[in-house]
Amino acid sequence: MxxxxxxxxxxxxxxxxxxxxxxxxxxxxxVLLNPKSGPGRGRETFQKRIHPILSEAERPYEVHITKCxxxxxxxxxxxxxxxxxxxxxxxxDGIVFEVVNGLxxxxxWEKALKELPLGVIPCGSGNGLAKSIAYAKQEPYDYNPLxxxxxxxxxxxxxxxxxVRVETRSQILFSFLSVGWGLxxxxxxxxxxxxxxxxxxFTVWTIARLIGLRTYKGKxxxxxxxxxxxxxxxxxxxxxxxxxKETQISHSRSCGDDLDRYSRISESKSFxxxxxxxxxxxxxxxxxxxxxxxxxxxxxxxxxxxRRQRLDSFYSATSAKSTYFSTGSxxxxxxxxxxxxxxxxxxxxxxxxxxxxxxLPALTSEVPNSWTQIEGEFIMVHAAYxxxxxxxxxxxxxxxxxDGIIWLMIVKAGITRANLLQFLLGLSNxxxxxxxGVDMIPVKAFRIEPEGTNGYITVDxxxxxxxxxxxxxxxxxxxxxxx
Length: 483
Ligand SMILES: Nc1ncnc2c1ncn2[C@@H]1O[C@H](COP(=O)(O)OP(=O)(O)OP(=O)(O)O)[C@@H](O)[C@H]1O
Description:
Layout: H1 5-21, E1 28-33, H2 42-56, E2 61-65, H3 71-78, E3 84-91, H4 93-103, H5 109-115, E4 118-122, H6 128-136, H7 145-155, E5 157-168, E6 172-175, E7 178-182, H8 183-190, H9 200-211, E8 216-224, H10 240-247, E9 251-254, H11 270-275, H12 279-282, H13 293-303, H14 320-323, E10 332-334, E11 353-356, E12 372-384, E13 406-412, H15 417-426, E14 438-450, E15 457-459, E16 462-464, E17 469-482
Parallel strand pairs: 1-2, 1-3, 2-10, 3-4
Antiparallel strand pairs: 5-6, 5-17, 7-12, 7-15, 8-12, 8-14, 9-11, 12-13, 13-14, 14-17, 15-16
Bound molecules: adenosine-5'-triphosphate (ATP).
């Protein structure tokens, strides 16, 4: 992590040469950009910092700006995604979560996950995945997160990543980062009101919650890992296919079977509302937005379908127009879905989740005897499968992208405030795991059963129903763009 910026830049430049010398993949990368991520500077950041790099490296892309929550999810669920070579999210972990779950709403989820690597340009307030990918590849992320992440897109190597299937009373979800109950989940959700201050919101709210500490009653059960791989071999997890063969994992279509015992999942209206909206918006104009000066200009250009010659300069700050025409191949912008483009099936049931079948008992049944059960009062229970839950949250120091392990952290009530403070301070460098009163257990699956109705449970930082939840890991199910 101590490599210099110069070294990094020279590597970046040699990467460009490498890519230019080996044209390889000609399909565009799909860029889904959330203009509301973090402090809301995603468009500007992409234009000024990422576009020049992709352009210089001759990586063609096509940008679609998300218009509302669930836009990205519906987009990947309904479009012919194989016209693109990969899915790049510009935003935080929330937009990645949408895309991952949108892919699992497709009957061809397995092909989609296999063929399309996921990438992320960190513009959110958390950015746990971007940091975890960089950490796994020993890239100096903290010095220049955007450059490191852009290099992953330029290099376009595929690294496998575990996913976790999460089941609540009303939903099936696929998670790439974490499940939380208690202190950290509370901080994640309650600090939303401070979104404008970016990543600092977590620090501010952590202090607030430490003062007003809460405890939660309930039961936590888990299936421990049989044996923990040695530190050296942790990165060499089995592929999903090997794992599936061994454990006879089958494809599942989840909706209407187990979940029908619970409430129905409501379809998001907002996406359809957007599509049904003002025709002026449908034709790609951004007039309804206050903050789209940067992109609107380029949409006009894109609809002209011009082809322009390669730019001579790396980046001309005075020419916002020219920066959007990349080398030889065109990079383009779209505000919303073009109804004539793609294979959207309006009859498709958006409530259906596909994916590998669960190997766990029903959420309403007892857990098997081989599981460990703990009943009592907790400060927090938090499961993570990536090293970082945010740029400054080195939560699971031994986690690898694809090791087939869920790291389950349990902090029971009774921990002293001094220890809890040390725990929270240690989150930034990973020393929190050594605190007394803190258990970090490698598991394959777990179940959380909270008592009462007040509290938050999060999956990848997103709030889900407060109630029983169980989760299991599927090794190497997805792939990410890596440097
Ligand atoms: N145009 C939009 N307007 C409002 N919300 C949006 C829009 N596009 C996407 N969203 C929602 O914004 C949420 C947060 O996005 P994202 O994760 O990109 O940023 P963040 O929350 O700041 O970062 P992090 O998740 O890392 O904390 C997503 O869950 C998504 O549903």
